[in-house]
Amino acid sequence: MVVTQLPVQRAAAEDDRRDWWRLAACRDADPELFFPVTAQGPAKDDIARAKAVCAGCGVRRQCLQFALATHQLHGVWGGTTEDERQLHLRNQRAAATAGRIRPA
After folding, report:
1. CA 19 → CA 24, 35, 88, distances in Å?
2. What is the largest distance, in Å, between two alpha-carbon atoms of the chain?
């Protein structure tokens, strides 16, 4: 009789997906860097520094997916600002709508 470890492996993979933030490059950074008060003036430098941290992060994609799925309205998530995430969502909706409309 062969006993498989699939349920255990699957559970470990699910834990990894839920715990992506433990691997995030920002885990030891000051959270205020990722939540500037505004996107104007001196805060632009903070946003650029936050994005630089995200650029080298191994879980950037998971972070962005989390932000989109949970509708994060503020902060830099997955290397994107609020405005960039809103644009991303609009583009996704437009692509989904275009895919449903069939040319005559």
Report:
1. 10, 21, 24
2. 67
Closest C-alpha among 29, 61, 59 to residue 46:
29
d(CA 90, CA 88): 6
Q: How many CA atoms lie within 13 A of 3 on its CB side?
A: 1
Return d(Cα 38, Cα 89) in angstroms, integer: 21
The residue among 24, 25, 50, 55 whose CA lies nearest residue 36 is 50
Q: Which residue has better confidence, 11 or 103?
A: 103
Non-local (6+) Cβ contacts of 37 within 8 A are: 43
pLDDT grade for 29, boundaries at 50, 70 and 90: very high
pLDDT for position 1: 47
* Cβ neighbours around 36 below 10 Å, total: 21
